[in-house]
């Protein structure tokens, strides 16, 4: 079965989608069109990937009859585009965050069900080979009980992003991965945010996720760091796994329970440093793996790995983080009040 695929949005991420789709065998995937309202950007995409272009995504859908449409536009446009496509019974891969509001996400899920269309959400880190291998090892019990997960997603401010802050643009990656690894849902959240550079949204988030199975997740996210960090550590009773998302490296730092000669020192140290092992990972492009997953779901009439329900669950947590967050100015005011009392 050859799928006809179209893209809505030819910005930086849209260009990545086009590049990956062009690498598929034409017997498997036929790229039938790209829609982009900014004409210079559209012409650049058309010239680079030799694909028909449209300034109106509705016209593209009506003329090209795609089997799958990837929605790669700013978040506030996700619902408009995806609802139009899904309502015609066409499968959708929508970039994260799924929508701007919870109500929009719920409606997209309902439309997809009513029209019999697949709805996949592009939480791409779930397809990072290091994360996939880490999940396999956690399921096999190699870490024992999981205690804590800590994500660091830091980097420079991206001027192109204006409609959301770091909670929705960056932290949603790690919320999804933590749900996947913990195999549990978030019960409580706590957060502190700051806005230092962004005009309207938070550009720093420190958040805590409390999962139903007692795993604790820590989010350290900002657009204020001059170097890019994409890291995740998972601590459990037998040690710590560390993922570098950028290099797709996975390492294991084991607890050393060797009895020391000085029992008093042992009792003070608790666990101690053991062997660090860098695990062999077969590296691959997560976006390619994501498309392979969605294509397989369509061809086999199965559910994609990351469903609309997953996207909705992440969106709910992101909203709770922002709603529960306290700016540093509020904290200072409370501290002053507390000092007076």
CATH architectural arrangement of the largest domain: 2-Layer Sandwich
Structural class: alpha/beta
Percentage of residues assigned to helices: 25-40%
| Main CATH class of the largest domain | Alpha Beta
What global shape is seen? Answer: globular
Topology as H/E string? EHEHEHEHEHEHEHEEEEEEHEHHEH
**Overall mean pLDDT:** 92
Question: What's the main sheet like?
Answer: 9 strands, mixed
Report low-confidence residues grouped into runs of 5 or more.
none
Give the C-alpha Rg.
22 Å
Determine the number of helices (DSSP H or I, runs of at least 4 residues).
11
Task: Please give the alpha-carbon distance between the first and last residues.
Answer: 71 Å
* Sheet with most strands: strand arrangement: 14-13-12-11-7-10-9-8-15
* Total beta strand runs: 15
The CATH H-level superfamily of the largest domain is: Dihydrodipicolinate Reductase, domain 2
The portion of residues forming beta strands comes to 25-35%
Tell me the count of domains: 2
CATH topology type of the largest domain: Dihydrodipicolinate Reductase, domain 2
Topology of this structure?
Blueprint (H helix, E strand, L loop, with lengths): L2 E6 L3 H11 L6 E7 L3 H11 L3 E2 L2 H8 L3 E4 L6 H9 L4 E5 L6 H14 L3 E4 L6 H11 L6 E9 L11 H17 L3 E9 L9 E8 L4 E7 L6 E8 L2 E6 L4 E8 L6 H7 L2 E8 L6 H14 L8 H17 L1 E2 H13 L1
Parallel strand pairs: 1-2, 1-4, 2-3, 4-5, 5-6, 7-10, 8-15
Antiparallel strand pairs: 7-11, 8-9, 9-10, 11-12, 12-13, 13-14
């Amino acid at each position: 079965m050859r799928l006809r695929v179209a893209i809505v949005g030819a910005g930086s991420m849209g260009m990545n989608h086009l590049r990956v789709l062009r690498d598929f065998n034409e017997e498997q995937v036929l790229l039938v069109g790209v829609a982009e309202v900014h004409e210079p950007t559209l012409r650049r995409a058309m010239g680079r990937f030799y694909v028909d272009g449209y300034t109106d995504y509705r016209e593209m859908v009506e003329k090209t009859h795609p089997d799958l449409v990837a929605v790669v536009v700013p978040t506030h446009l996700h619902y408009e585009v995806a609802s139009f496509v899904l309502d015609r019974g066409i499968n959708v891969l929508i970039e994260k965050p799924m929508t701007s509001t919870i109500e929009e996400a719920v409606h997209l899920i309902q439309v997809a069900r009513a029209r019999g269309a697949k709805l996949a959400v592009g939480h791409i880190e779930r397809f990072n080979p290091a994360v996939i291998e880490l999940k396999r090892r956690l399921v096999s019990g190699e870490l024992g009980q999981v205690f804590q997960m800590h994500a660091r997603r830091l980097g420079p401010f991206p001027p192109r992003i204006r409609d959301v802050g770091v909670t929705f643009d960056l932290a949603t990656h790690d919320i999804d991965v933590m749900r996947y690894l913990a195999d549990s849902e978030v019960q409580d959240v706590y957060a502190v945010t700051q806005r230092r550079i962004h005009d309207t949204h938070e550009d720093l988030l420190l958040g805590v996720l409390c999962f139903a199975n007692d795993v604790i997740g820590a989010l350290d996210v900002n657009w204020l760091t001059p170097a890019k960090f994409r890291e995740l550590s998972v601590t459990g009773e037998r040690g710590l796994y560390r993922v570098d998302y950028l290099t797709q490296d996975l390492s294991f730092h084991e607890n050393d329970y060797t009895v020391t000669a000085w029992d008093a020192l042992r009792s003070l140290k608790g666990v101690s440093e053991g062997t660090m092992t860098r695990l062999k990972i077969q590296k691959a492009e997560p976006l390619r793996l994501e498309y392979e997953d969605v294509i397989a779901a369509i061809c086999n009439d199965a559910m994609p790995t990351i469903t609309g329900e997953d996207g909705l669950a992440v969106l709910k947590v992101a909203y709770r983080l922002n709603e529960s967050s306290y700016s540093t100015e509020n904290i200072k005011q409370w501290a002053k009040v507390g000092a007076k009392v």
